[in-house]
Design goal:
about 425 residues; mainly beta; Neuraminidase; 2 domains; 4-stranded antiparallel sheet; 32 strands; about 40% strand
């Protein structure tokens, strides 16, 4: 349930805000982040260098570093030093609700914000085959990863880690060829994996894979996100595609505007947001035919970013190369998109209907008149369905289900007439 404080924040000032300098500067391809609900946790690998007799820098090793950014106080703090690991490839991470799990080649760590402490995940013979994955997701119970590889290798096995049992397990063989850079999302029921022109879905409840429709050509640098009812793949090129599991169908979405192609891709509950390239970012409400550009913001276009969605803003943070080999500068910004009509993901529920609340709801919906008790108001939901709010003593929120039938949201308790 959204509080009135959050509802008001949604109609607050939008646009970009610079982040203060961070206390860490990890190297370009070794940074990953999660959103805990309160703060952004960032983990990275910092290249250590020294100067030779000619004053030229050379590598002496690497150390792991981590920091947390709190949007409320607009401040960073350095976290306890992570244990040293042997990894040299890219990293992935998930938030379990209690810990940040960091997973990559040679790196398996967990961080607990409540104790500011790290622990190593247990060793497993499964990780001797390979231990870096490009398609890592959190199911609510396990961290899943499939594929990956380096230096000519392309793996086709998958592994899962369960924090409750503190143990790894092998996934059954997938109907997929090995792939170094697969993409994956968790739909709430299945782990959908795309590797090149092939795709499959894994169901943990049945411990089984199934083939799904083959995807169209996808850029190797693309990013995948779950957008409520579909997997969306964007970035790397102007091409954007989506996969709807309920229909087992791929769809080509409107092309990204020129100069607005990047690897930062998030879903804010109502629209896709893509940031990167020379001109900045763009947003698309699923079902619309055109992207809406937004400003580049305070970030350099050649940023190597990691990003999170906080529920109200997209935080982008990363590193840029400097003239000194092995050393990186850092930059960050937070983008708050404008409200786009009443969406199921951000609609205020069960608020006491004061004059002030009515005014804020009117502004959020973009209506020209304030809500009137007994009247029904319509708004966009994920671009294809609609939400209905009837204002009585409290707002009652309706939404369509997968069969396009109207249902009262289970968490509402206000009165009002059914549609």
């Amino acid at each position: 349930m959204l509080t009135i404080k959050l509802a008001l924040a949604l109609v607050a000032a939008t646009g970009w805000q610079s982040l203060p300098p961070a206390p860490i500067t990890p190297e370009f391809n070794a940074r990953t982040s999660v959103w805990t609900g309160k703060q952004m946790l960032v983990f990275g690998r910092d290249q250590q260098t020294a100067l030779d007799s000619h004053g030229k820098p050379y590598a002496t090793g690497a150390v792991n570093v981590a920091a947390a950014y709190d949007p409320r106080s607009r401040s960073w703090r350095k976290l306890a030093p992570p244990p040293k690991t042997s990894g040299f490839m890219a990293l992935s991470s998930v938030w379990t609700g209690k810990e940040m799990l960091v997973w990559g080649q040679g790196t398996q760590l967990a961080y607990n914000p409540s104790t500011d402490s790290w622990r190593r995940l247990p060793a497993s013979r499964l990780l001797r085959v390979h231990d870096g994955f490009g398609a890592v997701v959190w199911t609510g119970k396990e961290m899943l990863g499939w594929g990956g590889g380096c230096c000519g290798d392309a793996f086709s096995d998958g592994v899962a880690y369960n924090p409750r049992t503190n143990a790894w397990r092998a996934l059954p063989a997938a109907p997929l060829r090995g792939n170094q850079h697969p993409l994956g999302v968790w739909t709430g029921k299945e782990y959908v994996v795309v590797g090149g022109r092939q795709a499959a879905a894994y169901n943990p409840a049945r411990n089984a894979w199934r083939r799904i429709a083959a995807p169209p050509a996808i850029d190797a640098n693309a990013t995948a996100v779950w957008a409520g009812t579909a997997m969306v793949i964007a970035g790397g090129s102007r091409t954007v595609v989506s996969y709807t599991p309920a229909k087992n169908r791929w769809q080509t979405l409107p092309s990204l505007p020129a100069g607005r192609v990047g690897t930062v891709v998030v879903f804010d509950g109502a629209r896709l947001l893509v940031w990167g390239g020379a001109r900045g970012g763009a947003g698309l409400i699923p079902g619309d035919t055109k992207w809406t550009p937004f400003a580049h913001g305070p970030l350099p276009s050649r940023l190597e970013p990691t990003a999170v969605w906080t529920g109200t803003a997209m935080i982008v943070w990363g590193g840029t190369t400097t003239k000194t080999w092995g050393r990186y500068a850092e930059a960050g910004g937070a983008y708050t998109p404008p409200a786009v009509g009443c969406g199921d993901a951000w609609m205020a529920e069960n608020l006491r209907v004061t004059a002030h609340v009515k005014d804020e709801l009117r502004r959020a919906y973009g209506a020209t008149d304030p809500p009137v008790t007994g009247h029904t108001y319509y708004g966009r939901y994920s671009g294809v369905r609609y939400a209905i709010a009837t204002f009585a003593a409290e707002p009652t929120i309706f939404r369509t289900d997968a069969h396009n039938r109207w249902r009262v949201r289970a968490e509402t308790n206000g009165g009002g007439s059914a549609p």
